[in-house]
Amino acid sequence: MRIRSSAVVTAVVAVLGVAAALVVAPMLSTGANGGERGEGPTTIRSTLAGQSVRLSLPGPEPKGVVVWFHGQGGNVNDRVDGPWLDALRRDGWAVASSEFHSQSWGNAASTKDTRLLQEWAEKQAGAEVRLWVSGSMGASIALNALTHGVQAPPCWYGVKPALDLTRMDQVPGGPGYIRRAYGGGPVPADRNPIGNVDRLPTETRYRVVSSKQDEWVAYDENTQPLVEQLRSRGADITLLDVKGGHADPSHWNARDLVAYAESCAGKA
Description:
Blueprint: H1 2-29, E1 42-48, E2 51-57, E3 65-69, H2 83-90, E4 94-98, H3 108-125, E5 129-135, H4 138-146, E6 155-159, H5 174-181, E7 205-211, H6 223-232, E8 237-242, H7 254-264
């Protein structure tokens, strides 16, 4: 009987060992929390200047790097694993994101975050940044980085861009977050993106996804002046008009995003 009991215990331990190995294996193969990089999709996580960053890789040789700028209330993981942004990874792109000091609204700290993230992501991916993608508040981070010395990407894709920081009264909590982002005082003139469109690089191609029914970020105060001023300077900027309010799902058009990314990779 003792021999039988020992045999049973040994078998149970072996089975548990196999089960444990099966649980651990996917974590290593996906590179979770800085795990080993394999041939398939990998997620690399790190911290840069106190901000959490991550890089989602499609495999060992991505087409290029896409930098994602989250909106108000977002974080380093915002939308990255969802169907919209993950469509880029499935198409062969590496997608990088940062905490960007949370509700930073394009302040100086977020510009530093952008520079550090871009350099780190290119080194990790072994590929160049080809496209910046932003959502709402994230547009203020991205465009302020462009006007404050961060290396410009070939392409920018802005969804419902929030650009006039002096007119965000309809954004829930927006004015308060903006005041805190700028030390309690007014937004400096050189940090209000809509007032600095004439400083944006015309070598970069632009695409905007926006709705005239947006009740939080007014189309005629944000999207319209951005498009008109860039066009007047000879920049390549296109517009995808969608319907509904600020939260309408039509803004997150994965097919349009992937097609635009492909054009930025030099493909038709």
